[in-house]
Design a protein that fits this description.
Length: 432
Amino acid sequence: YVEDDQRVQGHRNAPGDSRGHDTRAHCPIHFHSSTIAGRHLVRCVRQQRLLSVKELVRAGRVCKRWKRLVKDQRLWKTVDLTSWKGVTSRILWVLLRQYLGCGLRCLRLRGLLLSARGGTFLSESWLKALSTRCPRLSKLYLLHADLRSLPNCLVFPRTLRVLELRGCELPRGFFNQSSSNSATHPPGKAEATSSAPHQGRDQKGTGLGSPLGVCIEKLILNNVPSFTDQHLQSLTSWQRLSQLELRDTFRITANGLRNCAAKDGLSGVEGLSRLKFLEIGITGRQGYQLQMASLGLGAGWIGLEELSLGGKEVGPGLLCASRLKDLKHLCLWACKLSELQIVRSCRMLRGLRRLEFLDVIFQPIQNPQVEEEQEGNDEQPDKEEGADANMNDDNMAPDVNEPFPSLRRSLAVLLPSCSLVFTNCSVQIISD
């Protein structure tokens, strides 16, 4: 249909054509559903297929019928603008006024943080218009966006349930729920932050039923260098946050994570009390001082059921995993591990139901005799406890993709009710 559009434009500008407005009478392509391109577009609308934004906008210029088809909200359910590098704030306004509507569920945007031309990309007025025109938007993904011009996270649509920030810049008080911050400070001075007592009052004043509270349930931060312990402390006022993923957040410390852990207080459970899933991973840049933030898990975390550790945070996190009494699912990814290290760390995780290894390089046994003695000491008390227990058949069954069969046998004795999953794992071979 792009070629059809070009043929129409060429015929419209043909010499001697005084009826430029009536191109249907002379154009060899008839714009109705019987044409190949027309049937393809109708089929895309009916099947709710994902087309690129450029294709949709270009198709809407062909004729009035195609313009009506393009505005069908089933085609704008998921909008991805990350591959369109020329998007500006003006284009965002055009898309919002002419195409985006109540059918939008997921929006992915690329900012101008790494662009040479720079400029303001997301404005408070555009986000407010987005909230009005797209009342069903539930997921927002921002790539390389400079959010320092925004007062705080309250400018985002309240219908958001998932917020993902990748390579973005944040002001210091961005995650505060205090509306006074946006009223007293202009967007250019949004970096002013409140102290810890103010954050405690915000937590008490914004409950589940508060019309001004944040309703985000899943927050993903990937390579956000400006995210600090102060931002993490601000998340304790989010009453619905149940999943938190911190990837390559180099400024998070063990003390900051320890202060936000869910624990019993004078007025009940304090901290991130509703958090069920936590991911911490450092796999990115070199030269940063390793904070070992996962050591903050040593204080325990009430209600935390799923933990994902990656990269340089795997070793410190395994040392503290035994303090997590409610842990049921543990995922280890992008790291190097030995069988002895895994067995020692998982010895106390009796409530674990699923142990997953993703992109893990297993190191071979360097001293087999010492390893066998260690396994014998671990198996002797466990055999007495699990004599009457039903052992999981999945743990004992051989797996074609399993690189370390002895590890499965050892964990089957320690954790008979735990299922093991190996994905894209390998064994490191050391040659003498």
